[in-house]
């Protein structure tokens, strides 16, 4: 409350997401924020996808005070703040279909076992004006071909006010395409940052007369937008990277190799969380650096999961880069699933096999088959079928969340 007064905050947005990962918010005047913190704020859950039927519609938002941030824009000179919330039943019990609570609860389970799940993300997007890319720049271009440099830099500075650091910003391969890379953090914080970033970039772009487009494949002959997720396990007490072993195969610990084995075994089902829109499967096609096959490797960008620079990485730098996700995914559900399949690999001591060093797209079908390289689902329907049959991810998400997610995504797919 002292910060609210000091920053001249007029309104506070109480934020949460629906099952699809779409940001929802209830804006309250600063005079009501104390009551909202103490007792929560009621809303109609039946009007938000996946939460409630009309006859049992009363739900409550309970703010998470650790997520308080001033938003990087003002309204008539007054500051606006935000708090992420847990969606609860009227009796105070967290709702099973609240994606943020699903991830938070699952992470706490593994924290008790000594593990912290770290994630850093790269978010790609197009800057469009009147439906067209704002420039004809290419990968790592600079002005004059890159007309977005000033916009990107200003946006990255504004995002700093939301409490996280954008470590790298650059022009991507296609005209008008850009990338921002977040510094890694615990999975819940990174998921919050992705949600906040999507909202902020849209708002900041609109202030400049630009449309920020996150669609997986907004331009048919252009590169798709990815949300590559760099991830590792750390010791929950010391923060030490548990994926690194200087004497291990590929400089990985046994735990890391088994975790990777889980990612590969459960890849079809995990795709339903990572590539969650019908348009996602227009991106997952050969020739555009998006993954198509269940595979892993080092510097090879035709694989599903990379170990960036595993020949030289050490300490906290050892990680995996999961390349299937796109920016429309629900990061809370994705990170829950990603941790679940990795830990299943650890429990079962799954071996990922040798890395792929060749261009997988150029292999013959026989060559891929001989290497045990299978194909990812080529439609949302097929990915949802795999998710429905995957007991590990279902167990992590919970039955209510899993069924709600599958039902909503099948409906979305049928309507396209």
Automatic annotation (TrEMBL):
Domain (GS catalytic) ranges: 99-416
Record-annotated GS beta-grasp domain positions: 7-92
Alphabetical GO biological process terms: glutamine biosynthetic process
Recorded family membership: Belongs to the glutamine synthetase family.
Gene Ontology CC: cytoplasm; membrane
GO molecular function: glutamine synthetase activity
Highest classification ranks of the organism: Archaea, Methanobacteriati, Methanobacteriota, candidate division MSBL1
InterPro entries noted in UniProt: Gln_synt_N, Gln_synt_N_sf, Gln_synth/guanido_kin_cat_dom, Gln_synth_cat_dom, Gln_synth_N_conserv_site
Signal peptide: none
SMART domains noted in UniProt: Gln-synt_C (SM01230)
Source organism (scientific name): candidate division MSBL1 archaeon SCGC-AAA259O05
Identification of the protein by name: Uncharacterized protein
Cross-referenced PANTHER family: GLUTAMINE SYNTHETASE, LENGSIN
A Pfam family matched in the record: Gln-synt_C
């Amino acid at each position: 409350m002292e910060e609210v007064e000091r920053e001249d905050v007029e309104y506070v947005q109480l934020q949460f997401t629906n099952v699809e990962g779409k940001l929802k918010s209830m804006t309250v005047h600063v005079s009501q924020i104390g009551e909202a913190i103490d007792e929560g704020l009621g809303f109609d859950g039946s009007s938000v996808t996946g939460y409630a039927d009309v006859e049992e519609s009363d739900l409550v938002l309970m703010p998470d005070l650790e997520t308080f941030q001033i938003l990087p824009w003002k309204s008539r000179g007054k500051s606006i703040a935000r708090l992420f919330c847990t969606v609860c039943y009227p009796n105070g019990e967290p709702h099973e279909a609240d994606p943020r609570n699903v991830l938070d609860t699952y992470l706490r389970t593994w924290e008790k076992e000594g593990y912290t799940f770290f994630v850093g993300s790269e978010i790609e997007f197009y800057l469009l004006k009147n439906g067209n890319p704002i420039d004809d720049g290419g990968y790592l271009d600079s002005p004059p071909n890159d007309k977005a440099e000033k916009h990107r830099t200003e946006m990255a500075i504004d995002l700093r006010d939301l409490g996280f650091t954008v470590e790298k910003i650059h022009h991507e391969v296609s005209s008008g395409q850009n990338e921002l890379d977040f510094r890694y953090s615990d999975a819940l914080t990174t998921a919050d940052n992705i949600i906040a970033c999507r909202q902020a970039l849209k708002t900041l772009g609109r202030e400049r007369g630009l449309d920020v487009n996150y669609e997986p494949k907004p331009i048919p002959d252009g590169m798709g937008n990815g949300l590559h997720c760099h991830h590792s396990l750390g010791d929950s007490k010391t923060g030490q990277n548990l994926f690194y072993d200087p004497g291990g195969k590929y400089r990985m610990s046994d735990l890391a190799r088994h975790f990777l084995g889980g990612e590969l075994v459960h890849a079809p089902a995990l795709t339903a969380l990572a590539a969650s829109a019908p348009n996602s499967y227009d991106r997952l096609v050969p020739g555009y650096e998006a993954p198509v096959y269940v595979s892993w490797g080092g510097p090879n960008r035709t694989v599903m999961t990379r170990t960036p620079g595993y020949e030289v990485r050490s300490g906290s730098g050892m990680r995996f880069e999961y390349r299937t996700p796109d920016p429309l995914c629900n990061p809370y559900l994705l990170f829950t699933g990603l941790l679940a399949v990795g830990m299943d690999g650890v429990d079962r001591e799954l071996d990922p096999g040798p890395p792929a060093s060749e261009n997988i797209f150029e292999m013959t079908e026989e060559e891929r088959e001989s290497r045990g390289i299978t194909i990812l689902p080529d439609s949302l329907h097929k990915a949802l079928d795999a998710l429905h049959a995957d007991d590990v991810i279902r167990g992590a998400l919970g039955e209510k969340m899993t069924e709600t997610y599958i039902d909503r995504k099948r409906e979305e797919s049928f309507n396209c």
